[in-house]
């Protein structure tokens, strides 16, 4: 019989119960027992949903209060020394507070670095390695949760990030030249111990996620893979399932299929062409899990097409060793469609969230065995046909405009050196000019007012007056602090993508379509279902108002086209590059309106620029060409003396620095504080020609950095960058922080800039 299984389920709760409990715990409004009770209830409900849907093999340990990689670091006892574990915590037992301190930092310890999970908008906490790193089984979470499910009558399949991926994701933090893969000899025995303990608990399968099989592997990684799975193959009483996802196997296919494990999982959405080839390489005992339901997008699976793929696989291995599942964990999908009462009825019929994807998985597993739900298949095919021919999707005017773009449309009138002269003459900024990335704290009052206005219980006039007051206060605060380039604070905006998408054609928004970005930060990605255009101005009103309140330059704040698409659930019926071009033209219209309204600087954020980079290096050039062009298209029509900024979050720049330069922004601001300016190494080998704002204030931690700390970071920056091209700014927007942290941190930042400015003048 074919087995239906799942790789992971959203842990946040349909109504963000995890976020509410976690933040209440951080504030001291909920005790540890209350937090654990919320986690237990979410796990129970998730297991129950999957059981009722008919999933045969349900995952456990896919739950986390923050991040699964961070959780693994804690399980392995890999806690950086600065956090004082175990002496500062509850004896020798791993405590959730250890993880929270690593994620958020403490008064005496900077938080661990955070970066993107492969090419998703999910973030993980980077494991830290030093010459003193050791591994030991330091926690019991994976066993506790297996027992919880067992008491619920479910024998789950525990899930962990695999050893090769864990080592690949980590970084050396002590400045040594050690080979992090040499740590495999210490790490692998702990994995073996975990597998043995799970077998003793009664677990039948252990899923080890190794998405690095979708990357270009080097010899060190290949050696770790062989060594790890040779050792794990010796564990008795439990079957190992190695899961690859997010891409094709390509040159890693032979290594992957030769692993001495009981089962292998492939991503048959992104790697559908490889499914039959993988099946032909398996020995007669090995199970193949085919991830045929897209775990990263919201469109219904074409069940007839998926069934054809599965039948091709079963032609090679039969049905007795076949598993059917999602391409990856459903962590990246919203929980359920049932509460989406505001979506267009036709669009709703094209969608499937996590719970609906479970039904698709079960349908396909049963259909392979000859038990076809004809009614479900017919309804599915009708939805496929309806979507393909719907008038909701196609706008000929948008298509013609995009098709008419020429090479000349990507270039500004003058090169950067000439633009810089004109901008300096116009802006008259001092050395080390200060600014922020855009947003200020979204207080409870701000969120309440926005919600009330959206519901209709606050009039347009009252809401406008409220926003005007927020902007007035923000402008006055920035002028009092001494900022050189101001922002209006974005108090009217719910999210940097949602706010714009709500005003663009071709976008739709859910009511409860939340997915986790990191920790308690959740986003509601829009759904791009059709051709995109901008019916009317989106930001001009409040940016123009803010500029009227100050003589200093005010930045207009926009989200760039790659990020607008990357952080959305994107239509899959045309190339992504075409959708991005449509969005770029819509943003271009807004840029020109902001310039006409008197804004001397416009920031077009491309936080997701590197995130969209393909996982394989051979695929990079095509992506970087169209991604770079799309950014240039947004700003190509502005005057030379209008300063164009961009911002990028948590990105390694070394390998794409030439593409970053090719974007031709007048100034780029980047996250650098958590890495202690290490990200600036990219600018050592490459002479970046334009201006840079290396972040000196980690906004993802509640701690307030001292002035001297920021001065030290800026001095590091001046060792790499020309001082006359350095801006001073936080790492990212300040929306998620509170004013009690933000005000002193920003004052310290401005004072740090003044001190360096004074030293430069001497």
TrEMBL record:
Required cofactor names: Zn(2+)
Binding site for Zn(2+): 647, 649, 671, 732
Superkingdom per UniProt: Bacteria
Keyword terms, alphabetized: Amino-acid biosynthesis, Metal-binding, Methionine biosynthesis, Methyltransferase, Repeat, Transferase, Zinc
Residue ranges annotated for the Cobalamin-independent methionine synthase MetE N-terminal domain, each copy included: 4-315
Cobalamin-independent methionine synthase MetE C-terminal/archaeal domain: residues covered: 432-754
Sites where the protein binds 5-methyltetrahydropteroyltri-L-glutamate: 16-19, 116, 567, 611
The keyword Repeat is annotated on this UniProt entry: yes
Binding site for L-homocysteine: 437-439, 490, 605
Full protein name: 5-methyltetrahydropteroyltriglutamate--homocysteine methyltransferase
GO molecular function terms noted in the UniProt entry: 5-methyltetrahydropteroyltriglutamate-homocysteine S-methyltransferase activity
Residues binding L-methionine, per UniProt: 437-439, 490, 605
Positions annotated as active site in the UniProt record: 700
Pathway(s) where this gene product acts: Amino-acid biosynthesis; L-methionine biosynthesis via de novo pathway; L-methionine from L-homocysteine (MetE route): step 1/1
NCBIfam families named among the record's database cross-references: met_syn_B12ind, PRK05222.1
């Amino acid at each position: 019989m074919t087995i239906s299984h799942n790789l992971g389920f959203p842990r946040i709760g349909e109504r963000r119960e995890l976020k509410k409990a976690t933040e209440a715990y951080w504030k001291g409004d909920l005790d540890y027992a209350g937090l654990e009770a919320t986690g237990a209830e979410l796990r129970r409900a998730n297991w129950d949903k999957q059981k009722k849907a008919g999933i045969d093999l349900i995952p456990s340990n896919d739950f986390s209060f923050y991040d699964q990689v961070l959780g693994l670091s804690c399980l392995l006892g890999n806690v950086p020394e600065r956090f004082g574990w175990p002496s500062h915590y509850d004896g020798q037992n791993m405590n959730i507070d250890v993880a929270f301190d690593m994620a958020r930092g403490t008064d005496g310890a900077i938080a661990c670095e955070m970066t993107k999970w492969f090419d998703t908008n999910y973030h993980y906490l980077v494991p830290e390695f030093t010459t003193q790193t050791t591994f030991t089984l330091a926690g019991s979470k994976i066993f506790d949760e297996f027992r919880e499910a067992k008491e619920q009558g479910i024998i789950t399949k525990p899930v962990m990030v695999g050893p090769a991926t864990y080592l690949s994701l980590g970084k050396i933090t002590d400045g040594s030249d050690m080979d992090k893969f040499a740590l495999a000899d210490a790490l692998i025995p702990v994995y073996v111990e975990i597998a043995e303990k799970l077998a003793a608990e009664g677990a039948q399968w252990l899923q080890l996620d190794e998405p690095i099989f979708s990357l270009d592997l080097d010899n060190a990684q290949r050696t770790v893979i062989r060594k790890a799975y040779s050792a794990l193959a010796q564990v008795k009483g439990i079957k190992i399932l190695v899961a690859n996802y997010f891409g094709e196997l390509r040159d890693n296919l032979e290594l992957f299929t030769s692993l001495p494990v009981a089962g292998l999982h492939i991503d048959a959405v992104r790697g559908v062409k490889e499914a039959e080839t993988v099946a032909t390489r398996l020995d007669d005992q090995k199970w193949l899990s085919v991830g045929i339901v897209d775990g990263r997008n919201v469109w219904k699976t074409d069940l007839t097409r998926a069934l054809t793929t599965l039948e091709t696989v079963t032609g090679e291995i039969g049905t007795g060793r076949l598993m059917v599942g999602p391409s990856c964990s459903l962590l990246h999908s919203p929980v359920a469609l049932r509460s989406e009462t505001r979506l267009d009825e036709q669009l709703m019929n094209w969608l499937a969230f996590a719970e609906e994807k479970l039904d698709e998985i079960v349908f396909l597993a049963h259909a392979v065995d000859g038990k076809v739900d004809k009614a479900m298949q017919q309804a599915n095919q009708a939805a496929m046909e309806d979507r393909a021919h719907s008038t909701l999707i196609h706008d000929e005017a948008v298509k013609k405009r995009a098709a008419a773009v020429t090479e000349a449309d990507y270039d500004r009138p003058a090169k950067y050196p000439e633009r810089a002269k004109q901008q300096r003459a116009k802006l008259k900024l001092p050395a080390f000019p200060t600014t922020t990335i855009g947003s200020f704290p979204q207080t409870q009052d701000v969120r309440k007012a926005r919600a009330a206005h959206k519901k209709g219980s606050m009039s347009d006039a009252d809401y406008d007056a409220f926003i005007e007051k927020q902007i007035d206060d923000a402008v006055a605060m920035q002028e009092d602090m001494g900022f050189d380039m101001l922002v209006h604070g974005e108090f009217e905006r719910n999210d940097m993508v949602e706010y714009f998408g709500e005003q663009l054609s071709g976008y739709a928004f859910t009511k409860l379509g939340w997915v986790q970005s990191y920790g308690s930060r959740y986003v509601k990605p829009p759904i791009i279902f059709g051709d995109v255009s901008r019916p009317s101005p989106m930001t001009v009103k409040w940016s123009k108002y803010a500029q009227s309140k100050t003589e200093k330059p005010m930045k207009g704040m926009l989200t760039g086209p790659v990020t607008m698409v990357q952080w959305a659930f994107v239509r899959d019926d045309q190339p992504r590059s075409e959708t991005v071009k449509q969005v770029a033209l819509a943003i271009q219209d807004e840029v020109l309106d902001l310039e006409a309204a008197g804004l001397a600087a416009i920031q077009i954020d491309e936080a997701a620029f590197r995130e969209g980079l393909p996982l394989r290096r051979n695929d990079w050039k095509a992506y970087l060409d169209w991604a770079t062009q799309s950014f240039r298209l947004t700003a190509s029509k502005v005057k030379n003396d209008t300063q164009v900024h961009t911002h990028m979050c948590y990105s390694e720049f070394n390998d794409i620095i030439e593409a970053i330069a090719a974007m031709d922004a007048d100034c780029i601001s980047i996250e650098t504080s958590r890495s202690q300016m290490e990200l600036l190494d990219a600018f050592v080998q490459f002479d970046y020609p334009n201006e840079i704002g290396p972040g000196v204030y980690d906004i993802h931690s509640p701690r307030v950095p001292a002035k001297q700390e920021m001065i030290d970071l800026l001095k590091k920056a001046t060792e790499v960058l020309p001082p006359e091209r350095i801006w001073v700014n936080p790492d990212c927007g300040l929306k998620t922080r509170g004013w009690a942290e933000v005000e002193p941190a920003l004052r310290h930042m401005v004072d740090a800039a003044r001190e360096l400015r004074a030293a430069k003048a001497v």
